[in-house]
Specification:
Layout: H1 6-17, H2 24-44, H3 48-60, E1 66-67, E2 74-75, H4 77-88, H5 105-119, H6 123-144, H7 146-150, H8 156-172, H9 177-190, H10 204-210
Antiparallel strand pairs: 1-2
Helix pairs in contact: 1-9, 2-4, 2-5, 2-6, 3-4, 3-10, 4-5, 4-10, 5-6, 5-8, 6-8, 8-9
């Protein structure tokens, strides 16, 4: 692997992180963020973005792999992650990273939960995946520079949330280094988003974008 192979370095880091014990303070912080996001998801399920996400997911159907929180729905892991992510950012009760101005929880936690339920993962595997997702989400934006992301019409969440949730899901899926490379590549293709959500007074587009 060449010294300049940044994708390879990150892929290897993601694989190794899956089997590393978390420092106690990091584990505690990760648990707190999972609980915080779950609370935001439960309350958000009854707000307009949550109701729209539930309606959409019910119509989509899908294999009963993962639960949509605060509903009677089980659907594909992809659909569950989207719905729960919209619940999580239905208003502004989810967490916030002040330097990058991103909201990691509403994307990372739902993706990890959906995949963990589908794969029958342990609580420790879920926690490590969430911590990795937060790490990747925020560090991508640190590397790009918050001013670069926020300086135009681009949305920080389009980058951070996408890469972070992909990292969490890939960790649960136990991808090898090559698989992690593919996951990063596919996630990078999906990074997008404009600040048009600032005009959405009902918070629906914002919840969708941030999930």
């Amino acid at each position: 692997m060449a010294a300049t192979d940044i994708t390879g370095q990150l892929a290897r880091f993601m694989v190794e992180a899956r089997d590393k014990s978390l420092p106690p303070e990091v584990a505690q912080a990760g648990k707190h963020r999972i609980l915080d996001t779950l609370a935001a998801m439960v309350s958000g399920a009854r707000l307009v973005p949550g109701e729209m996400a539930t309606k959409y997911t019910r119509r989509q159907g899908g294999a009963p792999e993962s639960s949509v929180l605060a509903t009677d729905l089980k659907t594909s892991a992809v659909n569950a992650a989207l719905a729960n992510g919209m619940f999580g950012h239905a208003d502004e009760t989810d967490d916030f990273e002040p330097v990058t101005k991103t909201h990691p929880g509403c994307s990372v936690v739902p993706s990890a939960l959906a995949m963990a339920e589908r794969e029958g993962s342990s609580g420790e595997e879920l926690l490590r995946a969430v911590v990795l997702g937060y790490d990747v989400c925020c560090r991508f934006l640190y590397a790009l520079g918050p001013d670069l992301v926020r300086g135009g019409h681009r949305s920080a969440e389009g980058t951070g949330s996408t890469m972070g949730s992909a990292a969490a899901a890939a960790s649960i899926a136990k991808l090898n280094e090559a698989g992690m490379r593919y996951a990063l590549s596919y996630a990078a293709q999906q990074t997008s988003g404009l600040w048009s959500w600032v005009r959405d007074v009902e918070h629906v587009e914002k919840a969708f974008d941030f999930s």
